[in-house]
């Protein structure tokens, strides 16, 4: 069965990159990377979440690439990055380091934005040399550092062992998602998006999620189920903004509030009423604005001015 492809029209259609490259991770795993926007512009690095791909950031890439160099990559096993038997938060951190080293000049700083598992990638990389060299500031969208399955509210049951057990089996299912049908869109919208999400948002997300191989989805579900990055959060020593949806069933706002309390330099938590887990798709303008603001405050302001003879 062929996998769904991303939407081809509208703001959620992935734009063509200026160039593509392959970064090589610490264990030799190849990581697919796309670069958008003008060379020499302030840099932004985008890390997507579980079952997604670079296409998830289409709305942000479209807006930011006008005056930023936007670097987006596929997590291993997702999108165009091949699957690997190594599925761990250490592997995620290795991959992010490889991307930073492959795309940024020595000492060059960037804003790093992570959604869901992408945010967990940033946390896992908090002590890595390449991250500390290159990350000027961070945006965390709809993510958490631990207790993902017990805190999930996908099932409308009371918290406790029964809900945790059933939730773990649902999220860790090996079952194929199948084609993107009306029923599939309704299920995905319920589990991952706010009740007022527009049809084009749901369609874009459904196509992306259903394109993820079920073996990859299953393998990474175990990593998320046992996640414990609380210590790593306390080592994330850069300015951090957090965005979360109040209707997020996968990483409810309790996670965002815990992150805000634990981070050494939290610059604000924005809770979006009625928005679900897919914040970059459901609230694209706000997420893009948060990234722009971080670039202005922590990247552009630190760049040396262009000499007069070069600017003429």
TrEMBL record:
Keyword NADP in annotation: no
Coiled-coil ranges from the UniProt annotation: none
Residue ranges constituting the AB hydrolase-1 domain according to the UniProt record: 44-287
Name under which the protein is recorded: Alpha/beta fold hydrolase
UniProt keyword Protein biosynthesis, yes or no: no
Record keywords: Hydrolase
GO molecular function, one term: hydrolase activity
Pfam families listed in its UniProt record: Abhydrolase_6 (PF12697)
